[in-house]
Specification:
This protein is α/β, with parallel strands linked by helices and 363 residues long. It folds into two domains: 114 residues, Enolase-like, domain 1 (2-Layer Sandwich), CATH 3.30.390.10; 236 residues, Enolase-like C-terminal domain (TIM Barrel, Alpha-Beta Barrel), CATH 3.20.20.120. The chain contains 13 helices and 17 strands. The strands form four sheets. Strands 5-6-7-8-9-10-11-12 form an eight-stranded parallel beta sheet. A four-stranded antiparallel beta sheet has the order 3-2-1-17. Strands 4-15-14 form a three-stranded antiparallel beta sheet, covered by helices on one side.
């Protein structure tokens, strides 16, 4: 099974409602789609969202990295020679992790097809079904409380609440949500780098004292400030999860050795795909640090790849893969089955994709 071509396209999927964080507001998913075509007729599927405000990757840079640097290094390669393909992919261009992730997942898709197995079974096969949280966008407290009630009615047992735009208002937001949903639903908060270290400590201590009961806080301070992240971790009771600070196996080593966070978040668009994410899982297992797996605003192709990784590894204990359920429609045929909070994998080979509607292919 040899690679004969790599096709690129664009897809646009509207969201059910605007997605608002401390960093941005988004109204639809606009992703780059990858098809890796082989001489046997097998096709591997990949996807990358241009999330410039977080990863630095734009649609143009993703397409350019693949066309100008990655594609020629992989054409003619045999899928069976997987390790060399991964070496070529990761050495073809520095950074550009979203482009690498799209190619990486398409190669894993083909690898599963080659050996006639779902990818999650090749990676460890720990489970076939996982449960995700649902993200509540940052808005006025009343609207966030209303959105939280709607989520609980759909069966969600864990909500991830976006905060970080106004520390005083964030406390009101969390109080309003906890008041209306009670204590049977777990609440996580994600500040998306929105606080200073001292502001984070003051705000989180007030939340702790008020009895809101928060499972953990995600990325309270700017990504590069590991000392600030450690300051928060050392001075609050709730666990702290590193997200934007956590992009590579080296980041995982540094965060764990510094004790800068209690948990780490794996996102394929930051790691450059499954190959590097597996290294992070191994490091986390070695040190005994649990992982969450998350996603950007992505459609079902790339999130399915993340689901396979999550299903394969027991060290991944927290799931934040709600991207597809935030979309108004699903243009992808096949892949993981998303039923609100429940995500189930099939026994289809690879990732199980059969096609995509509405892709505008690049000539």
């Amino acid at each position: 099974m040899k690679i004969v071509d790599i096709k690129l396209g664009r897809i646009a999927v509207p969201l059910k409602k605007p997605f608002k964080t401390a960093l941005r507001t988004v109204y639809d998913v606009k992703d780059v789609i990858v098809n890796i075509i082989t001489d046997t007729g097998n096709v591997g599927y990949g996807e990358a969202p241009p999330t410039g405000v977080i990863t630095g990757d734009t649609a143009g840079s993703i397409i350019g990295a693949i066309e100008d640097h990655i594609k020629n290094n992989l054409i003619g390669m045999d899928i069976e020679n997987f390790e060399e393909m991964m070496q070529r992919l990761n050495k073809s261009v520095i950074k550009n992790n979203s482009a690498k992730a799209a190619i990486d997942m398409a190669l894993y898709d083909l690898y599963g097809q080659l050996y006639k197995s779902p990818v999650y079974k090749l990676l460890g096969g720990y489970r076939k079904e996982i449960t995700t949280d649902l993200t509540i966008s940052v808005n006025d407290p009343e609207e966030m409380a209303k959105d939280s009630i709607e989520a609980v009615k759909l069966g969600y047992k864990t909500l991830k609440i976006k905060v970080g735009k106004d520390a005083a208002m964030d406390i009101k937001r969390m109080s309003a949500i906890r008041h209306v949903i009670g204590y049977d639903v777990a609440l996580r908060i994600d500040a998306n780098q929105g606080w200073t270290p001292k502001e984070a400590v003051v705000t989180l201590r007030k939340m702790e004292d008020s009895g809101i009961n928060i499972e953990f806080v995600e990325q309270p301070v700017v990504a590069y400030d590991l000392d600030g992240l450690k300051f928060v971790t050392d001075n609050v009771s709730m666990p702290v999860l590193a997200d934007e600070s956590m992009c590579s196996p080296m980041d995982a080593m540094k965060i764990i050795q510094m004790r800068a966070a209690d948990l780490i978040n794996i996102k394929l668009m930051k790691t450059g795909g499954i190959h590097n994410a597996l290294k992070i899982c191994a490091i986390a297992e070695t040190y005994g640090m649990e992982c969450m797996i998350g996603c950007m605003l992505e459609a079902k192709i790339s999130v399915t790849a993340a689901v396979h990784l999550a299903a394969a590894k027991s060290i991944i204990t927290k799931i934040d893969l709600d991207g597809p359920v935030l979309c108004k429609e699903d243009p992808i045929d096949g892949g993981a089955i998303f039923e609100d909070y429940k995500i189930t994998l099939t026994d289809d080979h690879g990732f199980g994709f059969k096609g995509i509607n509405g892709v505008v292919w690049k000539n």
